Amino acid sequence: MKKYERHNCFEILKKANSILILAPIEIHDILNGNRGGEKLIQEQLKYFRSINKNVELDSMFNISTAFKLLRLFQNATKINTRLATDIIKKKKTSPFGSFLLPFVIVFVELFLRIDPNFRRACNNIKKKYDLIVINFPFGATITKMLTNKPTIIVEHNVEYLFLEEKFRIFGMRNRITSILLRVYKGIEFYNLRYADFIFCLSFSDRDIIIRNIDQKENVCIWVPIREKRRPNTLREFQKKEKIIIGFIGSATAHNIDAVEKILELSKKLPSNKFEFWIIGSVGYLFKKQENKTPPNVKFLGFVDDLSTVLKKCDIFINPKFVSPTGIEIKMFDYLKTNKPIISTSLGARGFESIIGKQIFIADSIEEMARIIQSSIQ
User: Fold this and answer.
1) What's the whole-model pTM score?
2) Of the CATH numbers 3.40.50.2000, 3.30.360.10, 3.90.1150.10, 3.65.10.10, which one belongs to the domain with range 234-376?
3) What residue stretch is flagged as signal peptide (predicted)?
4) Nearest residue to 40 (alpha-carbon basis) of 142, 162, 165, 155
5) Nearest-CA neighbor of 314 among 287, 344, 275?
């Protein structure tokens, strides 16, 4: 397996005329989706096209039966967030699904090595493309071996940390799950170790990856930020009758925690002056609590035209106080509106270059309330 010079990352990007982006998501969902991973891949497409590359997108489900099995597993263990109750709703998957995931990944890795359809797909990729960008660590090494092309893994999150968190949420931390977690982690970093380059999204994720693969030259941080004109500052809202504060969130544990913080925050601000809009599926999990919800908090759920709703907001908020890995993709949506964002340090992870320009840091509910209140004083 050919290993490319690690310090030539930009040279390889420069020389690559034809680039293939692979992801474990259906193509239609990537192009039309609003979830974090889908939006990040959309940004990759925009970036490569902006530097005049011929870039194509394909789903990993289309190139191997093994990945089709992974898709079936994902669909079978997905929880309907509108119907889910108790702790299961926090991760949109069941404890059973979390427990089985390492077994499924082991099967995928082994089956890829004997799957004739996958070999044919890799042979076609080898003939057609100069560079492969894979948005999933599992299966990346065998893909590189069979195509013999420079390979970039985009590590949206450190995957084993996500699984570890699910085990913690479901109260499944025991000797068996510890062994499963080590296997899962070992496969993830095996694939990362043999990638030519790894693009991650934050300094903390980069540090974790470097510690586990004992390499640093090929681990880069890539966050597609496009800076615009100076955003409206908080003080420019003094004359507004009511200030709308927006938050986007799917039904995950971190977003549930964030909404609970927003409910707490809303009580510290005058309801006649500030209104919070909770956008996304996380709102469905609070439907039963609507009679106890402060009057200045509105749960909008899914919206047909997200950009139109976001334009009506004056400020955005990201009260993320716990997180094992990754960055907040919702920040891309916030940034596109060119409006102020109030975020915790964790929520702004990966966006350090624009802190103080469009992002204001507040690491407590009290500090967030103070900054928001200052907009009318």
Assistant:
1) 0.73
2) 3.40.50.2000
3) none
4) 155
5) 275
